[in-house]
Amino acid sequence: MKEEEKQIKRGANQWSEIKFNFIKGCPHCCKYCYSRCISIRKGYSTPTDWKDEVIRERDFNKKIPKYKGIVMFPSSHDITPIHLNESIQILDKLLRSDNMLVIVSKPHMECILKICETFSGYKDKIIFRFSIGSTDSQILKFWEPNAPSFEERFNCLKLAHSLGFQTSVSGEPLLQRDIDNLFDTLSPYVNETFWIGKANHLLYRLKMNGYGDPNTIEKANELMAWQNDPAFIRYLFEKYFNNPMIRFKESYLEEFEKRGWI
User: Fold this and answer.
1) Which of 39, 168, 181, 242 could cross-link 129 (Cys pair, CB 3.0–4.6 Å)?
2) Has this prediction a pTM greater than 0.85?
3) What is the pLDDT of residues 80-95, one digit of tens each?
C-alpha cells in the first residue's frame, strides 16, 4: 500500500494543506460542481448567477505568507481568461513567498501559456494538475458545459510537460469507463501523479446546481452504476493500485478498504 494512502484523507486534503481562492463563481458551470453546490446551499449564489466571476477583494488584496505545506490554487473556482491577469498576480505573490503550488484547472491554452511564460523560473515550485475525466469532448461537454474541450486540455498538458513543468492529471470525477484509454493517452505527458475518483454526492449536487432534468438524472444514474460496479472496482484495484503514478481519491480508497484489499 502506498505510504500516503495508509490514512485516508478526504477531498482536497489529499492534495494540499492550504487552499487559496479569490473568486466566487465559475463560467465553466460544471453540473456536478461541489463549490457551486456549497455556495448555493449557503445562499451566496444561485444556480444562474454562479457563471459570473466576482473577485473577492479582501482575498485578492491580502498579504500572502509562506504557508506550511502545499498550496492548492484554486480549489473553489478556476483560472479562466476573464480574470487571468488577476490570477497571475496571485500566483506571483504565492511564489514570491516561496510557496509550493499545485495549480488545479480545466485548462485554457491562453491561461497555461501565460502562466508558463511568466513563471518559467519556478518549475520546482509548481505542479500543474489538469482535470481531465474523459478523452471524449462530447462527454466533457455534457458534464462540464463551458469548460475547454478534451483537445484543448490535452494540448495544455503536452505544453506544460514539454516546457519541463511538473504535470499531473485529475480523473475525478472519472467520466468514462474506459480507464485504460484515458490513462494510456495522457500518462506519457504526466511526470507527477494521475488521480482517479468517483463523482461524489452526484444526485444531490446536480439538483442543488439546477440540473434535475430527466436526461441529466438518467445519465447520472448510468455514471454511478458503472463507477460502483464491483467488477469495475476490482479492475481498478488489480490493474492500477500498484502503479507508482496512480493515486486514488478517497471515494475509491474506501471501496478498497471495505473489501479488505488495503
Assistant:
1) 168
2) yes
3) 999 999 999 999 999 9
